Amino acid sequence: MKLDTKNSSISVLGALNMDLIMNLDRPANPGETVVGDKFYTAPGGKGGNQAVAAARVSNSESINFFGFIGNDSYGSELKNYLENEKIITSNIFVDENLHSGIAIILTTNSGENHVNAVYGANEKKDLHLVDSFKKIINKSKILITQNELDEQITREFMKTARENKIPIILDPAPFRENLKFDYYKMADFITPNETEAEYMTGIKIKSIYDAKKSCNLLISKGIKNCIITLGENGAFFMNENEERYFEPYEVPKVRASVAAGDAFTGILGAFLASGAELFESIENAIIGSAISVTRYGAQESMPFYDEIMTKKS
User: Fold this and answer.
1) Looking at CB atoms within 10 Å, which of 19, 120, 137, 253 has the fewest?
2) What DSSP designation does 62 have?
3) Is 120 left (phi over 0), alpha (psi -120 to 50) or beta?
4) How many CB atoms lie within 10 A of CB 293?
């Protein structure tokens, strides 16, 4: 069973990276060698991760992905993976001169991750991607995006969505200091984690009270709906009218948290696109993100609809 979403109803704009993942006790210090116990490659990129998260809880071909890859083996693998997840890939542009994005990820045995990315084709400045979005705008029910691609492209996507009254979920990652607040105010929902929320507000989040202060500051600056994901501590939501703390869903063992935030955002978007109530959507996204950390990989770690519903019951 999956969510009742329509074809092309969920639009995802973002990066596709091939993740080169090493598991070890800790990252090496300068001049030091630390030997890991596991290495593997896996399709990633925040946009790709969120698209797969949404696809695994939605009807086939509900997700329309917009992005860039290079004309190389990584690019082909990334596109093929999305197609196997029944994601529409006709709006992925191939650049002949740039390599596909990659990310070198060090995952510690305690579940922490250190991500170093080279975005390659993801940094392409090509507004023809916006024209592709406009062609399917009448089918789209929600836009999910991040700070991965060129700012102008992302702004134009959000502007187009706003003009057509399509809700926007913006994951403000990776954090960019040069972005002005009018950019964030274009979104209907923002989903920062503790680190991103700290960068945006200057408030270090060590408690639920800190998350509340951070949300309050963001709302005072014009953010419509703020959801700060708190990892193993759940999530905190606030808008002008209400606020709510969401308890975490506990799991027995954390293997890799590299895509937990992407699982949350993608699942949240899919449930909202299906017409689900906001707080129910957040609760399901928390369960889904918790399931994802029990698995290795990024896109591969995303849960299916039935898994979330089973845990919920």
Assistant:
1) 253
2) -
3) left
4) 20
Task: Specify if 107 maps to a domain.
Answer: no
Structure tokens at 167: 């809700």
DSSP character string of 151-169: HHHHHHHHHHHHHTT--EE
pTM for this prediction: 0.93
Direct distance between the N- and C-terminal alpha carbons of the chain, in angstroms, rounded to an integer: 15
DSSP-H helix ranges across the chain: 46-55, 73-84, 128-135, 151-163, 181-184, 194-201, 208-220, 260-273, 278-292, 305-312
Whether 106 maps to a domain, the answer reads no
User: What pLDDT digit, counting tens, does each position of 253-274 carry?
Assistant: 888 787 899 999 999 999 999 9
Establish if 86 belongs to a structural domain: yes
Number of separate domains in the chain: 1
Tokens 């890939």 -> residue:
89
Distance CA 206, CA 230 (A): 9
Distance, in Å, from the CA atom of 91 to the CA atom of 86, rounded to the nearest integer, reads 14
Q: Choose among 61, 59, 50, 54: nearest CA to 1.
A: 59
Residue 171's CATH number: 3.40.1190.20
Two tokens at 17? 């990276």
pLDDT digits (tens, 9 = 90+) for 159-178: 999 999 999 999 999 999 88
Q: Which residues are catalytic?
A: 262
Q: Which two tokens stand for residue 163?
A: 């003009």
Rounded distance between C-alpha atoms, residue 201 and residue 218, angstroms: 7
Backbone angles phi, psi at 20, to 5 degrees: -110, 105
Strand order in the sheet with 142-146: 88-95, 63-70, 10-13, 142-146, 168-171, 189-190, 225-229, 235-239, 243-246
